[in-house]
Every structure is written in structure tokens, then in C-alpha cells.
Write the C-alpha cells for this entry.
Amino acid sequence: MKALNVDQEGYLLDLEDWSPEIAEELARRESISLTPEHWEILNALRRFYAEFQLSPANRPLIRYIAQTLGPEKGNSLHLNLLFKGSPAKLAAKLAGLPKPTNCL
């Protein structure tokens, strides 16, 4: 695997560098073991980015996941459990996307 070029917060500098292996390494750095449930969200997030060219904040992320994967997955409790309480920021990072602009 090539070296990870990330900013000081751990986001990829070049979105083209992303791969499933890179996602696994980014997750390892966050002490997360990616499960099929994580991948479902990461893949949905990458589709969202491909369509809208932006990383969604928490509310739009929850809405999008609810619309595409169903309400049992598109809710803050489920996403917070998967992504340690900051789903929009952490999921975007693991999906190789820019930090959501309206997330602190």
C-alpha cells in the first residue's frame, strides 16, 4: 500500500488515493474495524458525493441513508454507534471524502 497523504485531521489530500485498503487503514487509525454495516454507509456516502460533489453534514447524511438504505439504518443512533458519535465527519474521512464543510 502506498503512503497515506492526509491533512492534520486525517482526511485524504487526494480523493483519487482512496481504495478499500486505504479505508481499512484510516479505520484502523480510528480504532474501528470495518464491518459490512460500515461498508454499506461508506459506499452510500461515496454515491452521495459522486452525485452532489459534497460531503453531507449529519442531518443530510441521515436523510440520505434513510432514503437509500431504509429508516432502520438512516437514524442518528445507528450511525452514531457505527461512527463513534460523529458519523458525518468520520464516515466522510473513511470514505476518502473531504470533511463536511459545516461540521466543526
